[in-house]
Write a structure and sequence with these properties.
Layout: H1 2-15, E1 32-33, H2 34-44, H3 49-61, E2 72-73, H4 85-88, E3 90-92, E4 94-96, H5 105-114, H6 120-143, H7 157-160, H8 169-173, H9 187-190, H10 199-214, H11 219-225, E5 230-231, H12 233-252, H13 258-270, E6 275-276, E7 281-282, E8 284-286, E9 291-293, H14 311-321, H15 354-364, H16 369-386, E10 391-392, E11 399-400, H17 406-417
Antiparallel strand pairs: 1-2, 3-4, 5-8, 6-7, 8-9, 10-11
């Protein structure tokens, strides 16, 4: 379907602004998002390498002085979105949010470098990028794991990227909603409300955000005082993989990564503490309330992407993964359909997200080639049926959320064109 490859390229170009790309071309997400830009750069790398490099460069232009890369950069002060830049009231050079998102830039950059011929001019630009990513990773190690456990915390559900996942239900129940909250949502006016987070979710999101703002986003202070503090196995899996990839890239440029190398060793050991041997599954941990979180989320399987050197665990996970939503036409549903928190249409509580399938496909390639190819085939089939939407029903492939969604288009290009 070369015409769909062409449509994917046009989708990215249609969403592109001055040096960065929107997640979609409507008012739902009128800014630059962190992990969206990483996926988008991968898509561009198949037809315009300079755009790919520019996408990452522009994102890193918003890096804070302490090393954090925000989850949103507001290049255009559009006030229709909430929370907009005035609600966050922060940023370094570029107005931004005060939280981050899954650090997948190193992984994406490695994939781009592995399959492209890089010019001398581009190499200079990429070396600057790598230095900034090292600072970003070191920020996580310093400020999101002060006890040096090898596992980093997220301090807002938005940092995970899977905003209203049932993983956060119990920790969120403990969040005290700020009195006299005033804000105006736009997302549930643009997209059907049954496909978006609930109002009570937003009340808690905004309460957490306001508490972070009161502490001026001081990374030391907010780790202790945030109303939400969770060690998520999916997020830590992505960070572990990104750290491994960053070490490999940095070696090519003779850049120092001993802190990161040491951290990988601790992570590989301690992430196994999130594994329940009896159940054969990984769990997350609510640090603030000292509780284990057992939710059958597809993101728990990102651990396959992290490439743990443990065949016993990997094989057990793959066996469970094959049963995740085997009775549905499309996979992978964000939550196992038999779980009481599953909602077919509601954002991260049930629908299929292409980036989740992509992480799992990548993680399966060197562990179960036959199944990985099946995941790839099924994902391509879903996109060719329903096109580039934000998320999809696992039951019938019904497209939902934003249309012309950038990362769905980008990852389609990767699934279709990448030789691996």
């Amino acid at each position: 379907m070369s015409n769909l490859i062409n449509k994917a390229q046009k989708t990215l170009l249609g969403n592109r602004r001055k040096g960065y790309t929107l997640p979609t071309n409507n008012k739902l997400y009128p800014a630059q998002w962190n992990w969206d830009s990483a996926f988008i750069a991968l898509g561009y790398s198949y037809f315009n390498l300079n755009y790919a490099i520019k996408e990452i460069t522009t994102l890193l232009d918003g890096q804070w002085k302490d090393g954090m890369v925000p989850h949103i950069l507001f290049h255009n002060p559009n006030t229709n979105y909430y929370p907009n830049y005035t609600a966050w009231n922060c940023g370094n050079k570029i107005r931004s949010s005060g939280i981050t998102q899954p650090p997948i830039l190193a992984t994406i950059l490695k994939l781009i470098l592995d399959k492209n011929k890089i010019s001398n001019k581009q190499i200079k630009e990429i070396k600057k990028i790598v230095k900034k990513i090292i600072r970003f990773h070191e920020w996580f190690i310093k400020f999101r794991d002060p006890k040096k456990t090898g596992l980093v915390s997220i301090l807002h559900p938005w940092e995970s990227g899977y905003d209203n996942s049932p993983i956060w239900d119990k920790p969120m129940e403990k969040v005290t909603i700020e009195k006299n909250l005033k804000y105006k949502r736009a997302d549930n006016k643009l997209i059907k409300p049954d496909q978006r987070p609930l109002n009570i979710d937003y009340d808690r999101y905004v309460s957490i955000k306001n508490n972070l703002r009161k502490n001026k986003y001081n990374p030391k202070e907010i780790f202790k005082s945030s109303l939400f503090n969770v060690v998520d196995v999916g997020f830590n899996s992505l960070f572990l993989k990104a750290n491994k990839d960053l070490i490999q890239i940095s070696n090519k440029f003779n850049l120092e990564t001993s802190k990161i190398s040491d951290y990988v060793k601790v992570t590989e050991k301690n992430i196994l503490k999130l594994y329940d041997k009896k159940k054969g599954i990984f769990f997350s941990k609510d640090i603030r309330n000292n509780k284990k979180i057992y939710i059958p989320s597809i993101t728990n399987y990102f651990i396959l992407f992290a490439d743990l050197n443990n065949n016993l665990i990997n094989n057990k996970l793959i066996k469970n993964l094959k049963n995740h939503n085997k009775n549905d036409k499309y996979f992978f549903s964000t939550i196992k359909p038999s779980h009481n928190s599953f909602e077919e249409n509601r954002y991260w509580r049930g629908p299929v997200w292409i980036n989740c399938n992509w992480f799992i496909y990548q993680g399966l390639k060197n562990k179960d080639l036959k199944f990985s190819n099946y995941v790839k085939k099924k994902t391509i089939k879903l996109l060719e049926k329903s096109k580039f939407y934000e998320y999809f029903s696992c039951k019938n492939g019904q497209p939902m959320g934003a249309k012309n969604f950038s990362w769905s288009a980008s990852l389609y290009l990767d699934f279709k064109i990448s030789p691996n």
